[in-house]
Amino acid sequence: MSLNKSMRVFIVDDYTTMLRILRNLLRQLDINNVEEANDGETAYHMMQKCPPDLIISDWNMAPVTGLELLRKVRADARLKHIPFIMVTAESKTENVIIAKQAGVSNYIVKPFNAETLRTKIASVCGAMT
Amino acid sequence: MEPAKISRLQDSHGFLDRVIGELRSVQSPQKDTLVAVLQYLSDHIRTTRSEIGALRGDQAGQQLFGSTADELEEIVTETGRAANRIMDAAEAVERVAATLDAAPQNALVDAVTNIYVATSFQDITGQRITKVVRALQDIETKLTSLMDAFGPPEASAIAAPAEAEGDERLLNGPQLEKNVSRQTDIDALFESLG
Question: DSSP readout, A41-53?
Fold first, then answer.
């Protein structure tokens, strides 16, 4: 299965620097249809209006964390099928387990490299072409 | 002496002093040891109260915790600006790379990718510093609770913060954004000094 590079990716992080990094790295993967938000609440409302094909979210955000966003997405009939990658500095085993139980599709620990991002996207969305 | 009802730790210091006073008037060979222990406790409470008061520094106008938190938050802001400037430059390189042949283009894109990834240091350091700021705020809250429990220190007992002397007092490091003087301000001041 080849990756649809026109897919709409939604990135969520409270650090604008990280949003810019993700956007640049996605562009290098020829993924240019990217939406972004600085917090889980805003992201969720935007996604409800126009569901993306992939969600890449930080965990540590306020007022709605990445984990809470994940749970909202998985509880929403229109969004629950969307691949969700958690990109976070929270690297404790417990965090990964909880995220997995909440339905996360994959988990990237910061700091990460471009290859890791590419591989994880490929694993949840299909092989990169 | 009537039995005292101690509802707050704040009363303990005065209460101890009253107990010591009462004990001194008791005719008993064992009283000296007990008085010495209670006096030690009383002195210790007084010292602790003063040290906490000095650490909080409210009365000396030294907002130690607030100022430290401000400095740390400034680091987050500054590294954020630096990371964005680095990415501005990297994006410019990437645009030029797109006009080159495949080999140099790929080499430059790989380098730029590494720059993008490396700038994530700002996010990581930001999160770590935020944790430190929260810890400082937590300690300050606990100190405030301790102060409330012990009562305010005697004004004369507050230790003044250590003042730097000589040229050392001029070394305060980078100023916070809100306090910083612009180059134009410095130039104007320099000119005004003749």
Answer: HHHHHHHHHS--S
